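Hey, I'm writing a tutorial for new members on how sequence and structure tokens pair up, and I'd like a real worked example in the thread rather than a made-up one. If someone can provide the structure for the chain below, I'll link this post from the tutorial.
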Amino acid sequence: MAKSQPDLTAMLKDMMGAFPVDTAAMEDAFKTTATLNEKLSGVALEAAEKSAEISAKWTKDTLAKLGEVSKVKAEPADYAKAMTDFASASAEAAAEHMAAFAEIAKKVQMDTVELMMAAGKDLTEDATAAMKKATTEVTAAAKKAAAK
């Protein structure tokens, strides 16, 4: 009644040995991805820095213009003129600063597309090389197993 059980551990070990895994391809893909992430982070950080500079300048300019508005005027009509001048200057500044933000966004988009295209090419080359190597190894292992 006692049947001998097949040694599954030995069978699994033999099977895994027949189809070796090359981790170099995975390492290359990881390095490519890590490099891409580093470059994308650089693009994002540069954009954030430039955006912060624009925001700080815009705030500084606005506060300076508010200083003029808050000064005592000799005539009541001068208050209206000061408010009109402030509103006009604020609208002009908003247009300039929004254009600067748009330029930053445009540069981020162009840099990101360029990086993604380069990374896609690198990943495709890595994947192709890995598949060729894996195919060669699996074919050799299959021939070796068939010869036994």
